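User: Teach me something about this protein's shape.
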Amino acid sequence: MNRDTLETNAGLAMTNGTHPGEFSNPSRLVFGCMSLDLLRQFVRQPLAVNQMELHLLNTALLDAGLVADQGQPAAAATPDRTLEYCRLHHIQLEAWSPLSAGQLGADAPQTASERTNRTSRAVDALAKKLGVANETIAIAWLLRHPARIQPVIGTRDPGRLRPCAAALDVSLTREQWYRLYSASRGRILH
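Assistant: First, the predicted structure itself:
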């Protein structure tokens, strides 16, 4: 067995403390489900958190569980399923870049990407309807998922944090959640 892989080196460092300071929080990871299984072979402590990129413009973690018979390319038919893995193993999923580097905020620049523009329009329309900021909607969308996803907000600016925190007071309906998801995907789920 080749013990010189990222997973084995990380696991050994986490367990044995062979690289002090390299893992400031050894339970916080960024791995797919197969890598998590490999890593679990080399650590004694339970894996607590997996931090992945997830937002309305990057829905791959959600799409992975829904692509069967949805007209997706063959490569998408065997998804990673990290979201489901984390839920089954009680690993908290954190979503980094939940506003897609500002692309989902109120002052998001218009881009050439059809997906970004379509999704931003849907977020903006719902934000206006509910009387909240676009950032509030983008974060509320993540919070509505049954996996209890924890968004990791990358700003320390109070003016940008307030609309994100306001998402705790917004409960999207299933219809609103799916409307945003469908706008992002460019088609409804069948």
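Now, about its shape. Residues 114-130 form the longest helix (17 residues). The radius of gyration is 18 Å. If you'd like, I can walk through any region in more detail.
User: That's plenty for now, thanks!
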